Please model this.
Amino acid sequence: MNIVEMKQFGATLTDREDGKKTFSMITEKYALPVALDFSEVVSLGSSFGDEVVPKIALMQGGEIELLNANRVIRNSIKRTVEELPVRVVFDVK
Model:
């Protein structure tokens, strides 16, 4: 599994357009499956999350692992995927 360091996209990830660009960059650069590492990322907005997390999860069988996500990021992701057929695994490494 490839680990994508999300800090390369910024410490505050909020904008929908940035989320679309990030999704494209991840899917072009990394072979799936991937885990997203949120070390050094302070916050994640639902607009950004909508464009990245569930889309990648669906591409890899409906599941995605998130590493080092703080409480703010975990809460945002939980709201983003609560009604979607995806499973998010939060892991602190």
Observations:
- The chain is about 40% helix and 25% strand.
- The two ends are 15 Å apart (CA to CA).
